[in-house]
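Help!! Second protein's tokens look totally different from the first
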Amino acid sequence: HSSLINLFDDAALDDPYPLYRQLRDSGPAVWLLRYDVWFLGRWDVVRTAPLEEDRHAGLTSSPRAKRGGP
């Protein structure tokens, strides 16, 4: 899953929790296209992410890199 959500617009800065909920509801890991980073919004995913990275060593972590784009 990916998202174009802007975490730093005025509405998000005033009350970020609806955006956090929207991102969590989108899936365990959401690629934030604006920032080129993963959003992990659930503790169980955050806790196991380093283990998953070790298990999948050598795989690219960026959807953009997988597509071969800048």
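Here's the second one for comparison:
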Amino acid sequence: HPRSGEAGPACGDTLRAVVEVLETRPSTSKPDRGIVTVKYTTRNQRGEPVMTMLAKQLIRRRPTGARSAP
């Protein structure tokens, strides 16, 4: 539930999620993994944020020398 005075999503809103990578770093304990900090923002049809979340995710790293997809 939104705090008093804050707008929240309403039935019938069109929502979209925007994901922003804030930081990437190698894991110190698992060399084949990395830690990614991401910010998720859900916006309504007027572009107003209705939810924001920060998360840290443990992600498998590409092998050394591997190329990105085009």
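Reply: Different proteins will give different token patterns, so don't panic. The first strand starts at residue 16 and ends at 26.
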